[in-house]
Amino acid sequence: GRDRDGIEVADAAPPDVPQPHEARIIERPRGSVTNWVPTFYQNFETRLALGEPWWEADWTPGPARLARWFRYKIDQQLADGRFDPLALPPIVDTMPQALLQKLGPHHPPFHAPSLDLTVHFLEDTTSQWLLTNVHARRARAGYATADCEVWDAQGRLVAFATQTMMLRRLPELVKS
């Protein structure tokens, strides 16, 4: 819907993380824990803002939280200069890696297809860099749930998303 007169309250703040130009580039060098990179990620420049480099072999598990900067390699701006809000769902559908932060580098690889992905579009932005701040709150019995705040480079909350996912071992690792 369009904007209407009414209450305006924001009870959220962006995480205290480095700006994109200061954050570590996310890469997967040969010999990394997971050499497989979904082709989906070729659409983005990504930077690690909060969390451990899950693509490396030696790091200490911690909270199931992860923040990353995303920028599409092909501009997703509308004719009026706003970022196309329909380009947000692919960015928020990257929540499973927050769970890896809790599991650590030696956990068997898995994939996590979405069973439910809900995105709340909150504010327009002209920013090309978007920060996803993810918390994977619970994993149990082959399922996990997470939520994601999407912040623009000016510190505005532009979207909020939740996801329920199924946790499955990678097919090549499943034993008969």
The H/E string reads: EEEHHEEEEEE
**Shape by Cα distribution:** globular
Strand order across the biggest sheet?
Answer: 1-2-3-6-7-8-5
Structural class: mainly beta
End-to-end C-alpha gap: 51 Å
Kindly estimate the percentage of residues that lie in beta strands according to DSSP. 25-35%
Q: What would the average pLDDT be, to the nearest integer?
A: 89
Largest sheet: 7 strands, antiparallel
Unreliable segments of 5+ consecutive residues? 29-33
Q: What oligomeric state do the depicted chains represent?
A: single chain
Q: How many distinct beta strands? A: 9
Number of helices: 2
**Helix fraction bin:** under 10%
Estimated radius of gyration: 17 Å
What does this structure look like?
The protein has about 180 residues and is mostly beta strands. Helices cover about 5% and strands about 35% of the residues. It has helices at about 90, 95-105, and strands at about 25, 45-50, 65-70, 110, 115-120, 130-140, 145-150, 155-165, 170. The protein has a seven-stranded antiparallel beta sheet with strand order 1-2-3-6-7-8-5. Strands 4-9 form a two-stranded antiparallel ribbon. The longest helix has 8 residues, at about 95-105. The radius of gyration is 17 Å and the shape is globular. The protein starts with about 25 loop residues before the first strand and ends in a 7-residue tail after the last strand.
